[in-house]
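Thread: quick sanity check before group meeting

JM: Hey all, I'm pulling together slides for Thursday and realized we never actually wrote out the predicted structure for the chain we discussed last week. Dropping the sequence here so it's in one place. If anyone has concerns about the input, flag it before I start.
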Amino acid sequence: MIRATASGYRRAVDGLAGRQLESIGEVVRVAGAAGLGVWLRGGWAMDFHLGAVTRPHVDVDWYCWRADADRLAALLLGRGWRVDPRMPVDVQRDLVGPDGVEVSFAYLARDGAGRVTVGAGPWAGTPLPAGMLDGPPGRIGALTAPVISVAAQIEVKEMFPVWMPDRPRRPKDAEDLARLRAGRG
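JM (edit): ok, ran it. Output follows.
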């Protein structure tokens, strides 16, 4: 198991995980300076909630407001990031950092009642878990990042195979659910 300690993520984690942590820091800095909201989702959201890198990650998954996605992408592209063309931009924004780290920004929107909803794709307009964006930021070492709430992480991981039957729950999803429930405190 890879662990990042309070002494700093750069010394504690190397390789892909270290580069992913650095990309998370860059996205947080760039979005924050521009006043744009971003929230980690998926495995990195779990790790930031738990305060340690618990497993290898293929990429870094984020949420951002659909209305801000083009501006956020332009800011990152101006810093040497490039477009990853594998996912249609009308579904989500995928980028690759200068160090090869893959990131995806799933879009958020609000409905007429002010609820946070899926911002694009076949599920556009579907309400997401209440309070999803209201949790405290997560931390690994000295790095903090906005994360979706633990309750939302659990609900999304539980419901994913229901929402997308062609993608059954993977062993890592079951392990993540156990970690989230145990660390919920």
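AS: nice. The first helix runs from residue 9 to 12. The chain is about 40% helix and 20% strand.
JM: adding both to the slides.
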